[in-house]
Amino acid sequence: MSLDVPAALLERAEAGRVDDDEFVDCVRRSLPYAWAVVSEVSARAHATTADYADHAVPPPSEAERGQLLRALASDAIRGGLEHHFGVRLAFQNCHRVAAFRPGAVGGATYRRFVSPLAQVRNQSPELRDC
Q1: Contact in structure between 113 and 90 (CB atoms under 8 Å)
Q2: pLDDT, tens digit, 9 for 90 and up, residues 60-70
Q3: Where do runs of H (alpha helix) occur along 62-105?
């Protein structure tokens, strides 16, 4: 299960009424490690003139790695995080998270980061099973 959804939020969802803030708060509570990583990398992206900031530290456990995978593999969760933090997220190797400033999306740095070439170059034997 990706999110720990409170009963009241589930009831509102079944009635077709969930706002963005409620959804993002559910993500924050359900996936605290992923939230911390995205929050930190987004803050650094906004605090620099560089196109992006990244977080490349492997998670401390498989539980935290699972949180990153769930957060960034779900279109809804990833989109909610991107909207909330005002960045475009990119993901490599089950743990490298980058937050791109909006103006950098589509530019050369962004295209390089999300390219198959970059994915292949960022592989290593110790990350093969992540």
Answers
A1: yes
A2: 999 999 999 99
A3: 62-73, 75-85
Contact 95, 61 (CB under 8 A): no
Indicate whether 15 belongs to any domain.
no
The more confident residue out of 87 and 112 is 87
Name residue, tokens 């997220």.
89
Q: Are 97 and 68 in contact (CB under 8 A)?
A: yes
For residue 12, give the H/E element and its range: helix 7-14
In a domain, 21, yes or no: no
0.85 exceeded by pTM: yes
12 is a domain residue:
no
Q: Which long-range contacts (CB under 8 A, 24 or more apart) does 16-23 make?
A: 20/80, 20/83, 20/84, 23/76, 23/80
| Number of domains observed in the structure of the chain | 1
103 assigned to some structural domain: yes
